[in-house]
Amino acid sequence: MLKLENHEIRHSNILAWLLNPKENHGLRDYFLRKMMEHLILIDENSNNPQYETVGEILNHSLMESHVYREVKTDKNRYIDLLIVNQQLKSILLIENKFYSTESKNQLDDYFNYIHQTFEGFTIIPIYLTLDGEEPSNEQYFILTYERIQSILHTILMLYQDQLSDNVYKFLEDYNQILKEKFYPNQDQIMQAIDIYRNYKPTIDTLFEETSVLNKVLQFESGYQFEFMMKYKNTINYIFKHGQNILSYSFEQFIRQQFHGEVLSNAHPTVPNLVPPEWEGISQISLRDPNYWLGKGLIVWFEQTNDSRLRLIAEIGPMEYEGRLWLLEQLEKIGLTFKESSKLEKARYTRFFSLKMDVNKWDDMTELTQAMVDLYNSPEFTLLRKQVAAILNHENPVREEMTKSVKSSSLDEMKLQVQLAFKKWIQSKNIPESDYRVSSQKISFKIPLFDQFKEKLGETREKWWWHNGPFLFWMNINPNSLYFTLEVGPIEADQRVLLMESMKEKGIKFKSTGLKPDAKFSKIHTETISIEGLSESELIQVFDTIYNNKDLQEILEKLQMIYDEIVSKVE
Fold first, then answer.
1. CB-based burial, 245-274: b 16+ in 10 Å, e otherwise
2. CA nearest neighbour of 512 among 525, 499, 497
C-alpha cells in the first residue's frame, strides 16, 4: 500500500532502524552483526583492503554503535547511512542504491569526507544495491538486498518467540517485499502470460481504462465499473507480466537456431536449454532428477537487474565422481573454480556468464537477436565445442574462435558508431548501468532522470530498459543518427502534472501529451548526418547532439521543474 518497494529513502529508514542495536525491535546488535558477516561471505569482497578488519571488528560487541541518516557532507551531498562506534573507533558508511546508480564522484566524496572528519577511525564503506553492482571506488564493499532479505528470513525463523507481535509482523511484511524482488511466483507469472497471450486485445483495453480510473473523481453505475474497481490490480498484474516477452523471444530463438529440435523450456523468467552437442552429459547420473531439464548441464537466459540479457551455463547436482571429473577437465582448459565447488556436498556451479545490452524489452525481434548473438558469441561457441569434446572424451579445442561471417558495409558502420558512442560515454563518465547499445539503437540517461524516477515512479508498462520518466535514445540509420529525448508512460496523474509543468516552462510537445492516457511524448529530436565520418568525427557528433542549445535549455527547464515541483512530490 505504501509502494515501499521502489523508494530508497524508505528502505534506508528501515535499515537505520534495524541496524541500531538500541532500537525497539529487540534484536540488539544481531542485524548489524549479520550484515557485517555477509560482507566477508561475498567472494567479490575478498580483495577489499579492509576485509580482515571486518572480521576483527566482529570479535567485539557492537552494542555501542550509533546510526545516523542523511549525513550532509562538505559538498552538500547526503550519506544515506552512517554507523559510528566510538569504542571500536570504527565507522560503517552505507550508500543505498535500490534502483538508481551512483552519480559522478559520489562514492569518492563520501569516503573522503568521513576520512577527514573522523581521523584515526577505521572506515568500512559499503555499496548496497539490488544486484551487486560493482562500485566505482574499490575501497567499497559490495552488498546486495538479497543478502538483507536472507538475514530477515533467518530472524523470522529464529526470533519469532522473542519479538513483539508488531515487530514480527512488520519484519514479515518487509521480508515479503524484498523476497518478491528475487523470487517472484513463477506459476502466477506463467498464468498471466497465458491469459495475456489468449486475450491480449481485451487486457490491453482494460489496462488503458484502469490506468486512468480514480485519477479524477469518477463514479458510474453498472457491472463494468464495479468490475474495473474490483479487479484493477489483477488486470495490471496480467498486463505487466503478460508482456514479458522473454519466453516468446526464446521460442523464436529456438526455432531460428535449432529449427525447434532441442531440449528446452520457454520458462517466463529463465528460459533454458541443453546445447545439442552436450548430449554426452547423459552418461553422468543426476543426484536430483528434477534439476532443470533432467541433465547435469544447463544453459539459460535471464534479464539482469540492470536490464541486460545474460546467458549462464551451470553444472548441476550430478553424482560426485562424475561431477568432480568434469570440473577437473574444465580446469584443464583454463576455467577456475573454488575448492568448495569440488566438495561432495556441492550441487550447483556456474562456469560461464556473458551479458549483452538490450534497448527495448518490448521488442521481440531485438531480444531474439540478442539471444542468437550471445549463444553464437566467439566465447560461448568455443566453450560449447570444448565441453562437447570433454564429454566425448576427445581433446578439447584450445585456440580462440573467430567469426568467419563477412560484415557488410552497413554492419561495419554500425559497429563504428557503437564504438564511438562508448568512447564518448566514457569521456562523460557515464557509468555502464546508465546506457545501452544494440545493433539498431543507442540509449542513455543522466542523474536528473533518476531523480525524477525516484519521485514520480516507474512507467506503468515496460519502457526501454530504464522504466523511468525520461530517456535519450538514437536510431542508427544507414547515413544518419536520429536523436530523441522522450517522456515515457508514467502513471497518468504524475504524467499530467509533469507535462503541464513542462508546457508552462515553454517546452514544446504535441497537445496529445497532456491527455491522461498518453504514453510517449518527444520533447526534442534531431537528425544528423554521419556519412563517411571517422571515429573521432563521430565522437564529435555525439558532443554536438548533446550540447545542442535547444536541448540544454530543455534540460535546464527540467531541472527547474524538479527543484520547484517534483522534488516536493510524495
1. bbbbbbbbbbeebeeeeebbbbbbbbbbbb
2. 499
Q: Name residue 202's amino acid.
A: T
Beta-carbon contacts of 191 under 8 Å, excluding residues fewer than 6 positions away, are none
Identify the DSSP state of 517. T
Residue-wise pLDDT for 90-105, tens only, equals 999 998 886 555 566 7
**What are the pLDDT digits (tens) for 446-500?**
999 999 998 898 887 788 998 899 999 999 988 899 999 999 999 888 899 999 9
Rounded to whole angstroms, the Cα distance separating 524 from 518 reads 17
At position 35, the amino acid (one-letter code) is M
Q: How far apart are the first and last CA of the chain?
A: 14
Residue with cell 515515457: 488
Beta bridge partners of 363: none
Helix (H) or strand (E) holding 125: strand 122-129
Q: What is the CA radius of gyration of the chain?
A: 26
Q: What pLDDT, on a 0 to 100 scale, did the predictor assign at position 1?
A: 45
Return the amino acid letter for 31.
Answer: F
* Residue 410: pLDDT over 90: no
Whole-number Å distance between alpha carbons of 40 and 141:
9
**Measured distance CA(311)–CA(529) in Å, rounded:** 36
28: left (phi over 0), alpha (psi -120 to 50) or beta: left
Name the 3-class secondary structure at 103: coil
* Closest to 300 in 3D by CA, of 313, 289, 291, 309: 313
Which residue has cell 532428477?
Answer: 289
CA dist 558 and 570 (Å) reads: 18
Mean pLDDT of 547-567: 95
Sign of CA dihedral 215, 218, 224, 230: positive
Beta bridge pairs of residue 42? none
Could you tell me if 45 and 39 are in contact, meaning their C-beta atoms sit under 8 angstroms apart? yes
**Percent of the chain residues past pLDDT 90, beyond the cut:** 48
Helix (H) or strand (E) holding 143: strand 141-144
Structural domains in the chain, sorted by start: 1-182 (no CATH), 186-234 (no CATH), 244-392 (no CATH), 409-567 (3.30.1460)
Counts for the chain of helices (H) and strands (E), in that order: 18, 15
Average pLDDT over residues 328-334: 93
- Strand arrangement, sheet containing 521-529: 435-437, 441-444, 470-476, 480-487, 521-529
Between CA 379 and CA 19 the distance in angstroms is: 43
Full-model pTM: 0.65
C-alpha cell, 368: 531474439
Q: Which residue has the cell 570440473?
A: 327
C-alpha cell at 453: 524516477
Q: 355 with 308: CB under 8 angstroms?
A: yes
